[in-house]
Amino acid sequence: MQVSKLSTLTLAVAAAVALSACGKKEEAAPAAGASAPAQASAGGDVIKIGFAAPLTGPQSHYGEEYKNGVTLAIEDANAAKPTIAGKPVTFELNAQDDQADPKTATQLAQKFVDEKVAGIIGHFNSGTAIPASKIYSDAGIPMIAMATSPVFTAQGFKNTFRSMTSDTQQGSVMGKFAVEKLHAKKIVIVDDRTAYGQGLADEFEKAARASGGDVVKREFTNDKATDFTAILTSIKGANPDVVFYGGADAQSAPMVKQMKRLGLKAPLISGEMTKTPTFLQLAGKEADGTIASLAGLPLEQMPGGKDYETRYKARFKADVATYSPYGYDATRALIQAMEQANSADPKAYLPVLAKITHQGVTSSNWTYDDKGDLKDGGITVYKVQNGQWTVMETVGGGAAAKDASAAK
């Protein structure tokens, strides 16, 4: 705010400048005030959408790419000059760093509630989304999270929705795939003890056993570890056919390098937090042979994938990695629900969101079941070959598969 100029302005203009300056200050530091979010909840000219993910630390690459998708969705929505309740509106992103930490996440959740944001995209991690969801539920604020733990939507809250398939779907597919397609008989499982990693590993184990596989060893580490020598030495003695890891690329990359160094012949199998460009960079040539799953179709087969990829690259000067298309669709679905309800009041548009049918980038049939899980949740299995992720096969997601065929 330029105080020296105020003396030359009328009181009315000074007030307008002050309000504008406060709005700019909030964009830089959203905790400073709640005037714009308060307008949003009343359907005014600025509608705040909260976003939370790790934007610093070892998982920041996930959060930043996720945020890019949300940013692009909001920019596209604003370009259409939306109106709600007969008034022009502007959607505005309030992005916060939850550091992948549950305590920080709950603090941010309360701040978002206090600032009366209209809705939440995030949190990214299951371990942050689950505790934060109770706070949003009590306030009646809809949230569409990237979290994949089954617990997230099993709590019975009416405000919780997903951007991706759950670990139940993904772990089940991979457990069956390991036994039936990779012919693995002896299986070792390692997880990082986070809600995501352990949950994914649990579902993988159930499916592998049900398919006839023998889980000969179950180990655990944490999401900060980088030295797995002791665990891997123990695993080597079990002579497994595959090693499954539930966790992020910051651990799976050094793990696979150490596996190769120790002479472990079994391939590493993991989930979508391993299926990243960062994993390829960190693991180097030792990445070859690694198998990972990711929700939905490959980008080039998504209904809106090619157009999204072009626009994303032009906007952010970077390749689409993993999560941004899902963040984009979640944000557009949230906004579409507000527009259809003709209100940014969570009480008014939440029922509309629960029944939404959204034609998006990742699927032309983005719809939710009564828990808030996506109805059409296919899984694609990838393998690293010559330093690149290549498609092995896509399992499930009938509607998404039809979308892909129609798009060709």
Automatic annotation (TrEMBL):
SUPFAM superfamilies per UniProt: Periplasmic binding protein-like I (SSF53822)
Protein name: Branched chain amino acid ABC transporter substrate-binding protein
Gene3D superfamilies per record: 3.40.50.2300
Keyword Signal (UniProt): yes
Domain Leucine-binding protein: 47-370
Membrane-spanning intervals of the chain: none
Pfam families, sorted: Peripla_BP_6 (PF13458)
Species: Chromobacterium vaccinii
Keywords tagged on the record: Signal
Family named by the database record: Belongs to the leucine-binding protein family.
